[in-house]
Structures are given as C-alpha cells and as structure tokens.
Amino acid sequence: MNNQRSLFFNVDWMIVVTFLALCIIGWFNIHAAVYNAEKPSIFNLDTNYGKQLLFIVSALVLGFIILLLDSKFFNAISPILYGITALLLVLVLIIGRNVGGNQAWIPIGSFRLQPSEFAKFATCLLLARYLSSNNIKIQDTQTKIVSGIILLIPMGLIMLQPDAGSALTFTSLIFVLYREGLSGYFLIIEGLSILLFVLTVLYSKFYVLAGVISLAILLIYLFRKNRQSVIKIGLLLLFSICFTFSVDFAYNHVLKAHQKDRIDVILGKINDPKGLGYNLNQSKIAIGSGGLWGKGYLKGTQTKYDFVPEQSTDFIFCTIGEEWGFAGCFVVIGLYVFLLIRIIIIAERQRSSFTRIYGYGVASIIFFHFFINIGMTIGLIPVIGIPLPFISYGGSSLWSFTILLFILLKLDSNRMGII
Length: 419
Description:
The protein is mainly α. The protein is built from 17 helices and three strands.
C-alpha cells in the first residue's frame, strides 16, 4: 500500500492536469464542430462527441494501468512493441480500409484502428533502448545507421499507405539524436534541405543550382586556407546538388496531383480560394472571424454550417479560434508550451539515460504535431493532415498520445531507483 501511495505521490500531477485540460477542451470543441441539434447532449454516445467521451475515459484507464506497471517493463518490451506495430503497418496495407485516399485503418467492428499512431511510442521506446545501451555512442557510424533504420522502417511502411503526414512525424526524432550528441551539421543539413525544397518548387532547379554553386565557390574562397572547412563545404555542395535534383524529380514524377496542389497553394504558386485553396481559406476565415474573445460556444457560423472540412479532426483548431477567439487560442497554445517545457524538465532530471532519451522523444512527437497542425490551419505549413494531440477527434490518436505521455510519467515516478 505504501508503495502505491509513493507511486501516485511521485507522479508529475502538473502534466496530468494539463493532459486532462487538453482532453476536455478537445471534447467540448468536437461537440461544437459536429453539433447535431437532434442529439444536442454532449453525452450522447451515438455522436462523435459522445464517442470521444468514451475515448477519454478509456484513455484514463490506460494511463492508470501504465502507472501500475513496473518501470523496467517498458525497456524490456520495447522490441516486441516495435515488432507488433511494424506487423500492423504491414497488415493495414493488406486488409486496411481506405479513407480519403489513405489505407491507414484496420476496421474492428465500428471502430477503426490506426497503427501508425501506435508506431510513434513504440519507435520512441526502441530508439531509447538502443541509444541507452552500453558502449553505444551517437558519434559512431554504426549507431547512426541503426538509429536511422529504426526510424525508416515505420516511415517507409506508413508512406506506402500513403500517409505523408504521419510518416514525417518520425523526422522530429532527429532532435533526440541531437540531444544525445549528434553533430549540429545534421540540423544544418535538415534546415538546408527545407530551404532547397522550397526554392526548387518555386523556381527552376537550374537557378537554384546556380545560386548554390556560386555561394559554395565564395565560401571556398573565403575559407581556402582551412582544408577541413573546404572539404565540408564541398560535401554540402554535393549534397545540395543531389537533393535539388531529387526534389525536382519527386515533385514532378512521384507526388500525386493533390499533394502538389497543396504545396503550390501554401507557397503561393496557385491562388484558388474556391477550389484547391478552399480548406485553407475557410480555415483562416474561421479563426480570423473569432476576434479577441470569439463568437461563443456553439455560435460559430463557419463551424455550424460545415464550411471547414475535417473540422473535428485535422482542423479542430479552427473551432477553437472561431468560438473562443484569440484568448482561447492563447490558452490552448499556452497549455502545449507548458506541457512541452515540463516534459523537457522531466527528461533533464533523469538519472536513467533510457528515460531521458524517451522523454525527448515524447517532446519531439508532441511538438511536431502541435506545430504542424496549428501551422497548417493558419496557412504557415502545407496541409498534410495530422491530429492535434489530445484535442482532435479519434480513439487511436488519443490512446497513442496517452500511452506516449503516461509511460514517461511512470518512468519519471521511479526516477530515483532507475539508473
């Protein structure tokens, strides 16, 4: 009994309260987004908002069960969980249900299981187990290769669905590798890749290459007396040339028409507010129309008349912006920022390298979803379709984020006894 009291006493209750606040905010805004006047009760289980209540309750049960388990269990079972999710990702390609062009769901009665959501915490666990093993150093080439394989397996399987949004989530785990000592050059390469991608889409690849080569020549001249710098600049130039040609090929021959259209709308190549840019345009109208304090609960006109598609899932932030205004958006963003800061504090206070690495994985995944989801609703990021953690409608999403977060809470609650 004393052990159980100690267990719950050591749990970081600030994170638990923040988690509950986000879940409740999500529940009420899902009610607003898909409100049915014939079934007005928020507790009506025949509606999505009623089902979300069941998802929240079951998520709390999952969280409670996780807190009762032994902390060492998660390290030991990580390869098994990773293998199971990988098998589910293969299975969904065979028997999965196609929704919106993505074959990402396995039907189980009236419920649809999305394996890609559960692959996130399984990958975080296995990556933490590997990097915290004895004699593993991130500077070693073998460590980088194995870490890359751990990330690329789920990414590749998810891309086959194809679900680019969920696949890109795993790229956020590079911050975990960086925290563990990965050279800052890899972050430079990632930033350079984003810049080259945008420039190659906007302009001819030949103009981009001309600019890159000119810059490289200038830098080589400036650092000509430093052989190592010249070699690094030369390698970056080679990477830039190969990457630019790859982007040009992928954009013109690999991406589907609707994926290219989404990118073109965001980058301003296409201005079609009533066609290709409809979702984004309506999203910005909904958020902007909320003003400072919002139109009030269940009073959002954009929300009420279904102007914004997928408003209870990918575009749930529109409902918050319209009905709760800037103040509501500020509160929600503040809760996420607080949650992320708290997770990093927890990660940094660990004696266990496994828990620290896993904690940074949790922060990276949640930050990526938070940043991309809100960014796409206000037009800063291409619409790639990923849920807002703990707020968007969906059982798979809520359960996976709950498991992701509560495993960290469990590991942290026993931090004094784990090395």
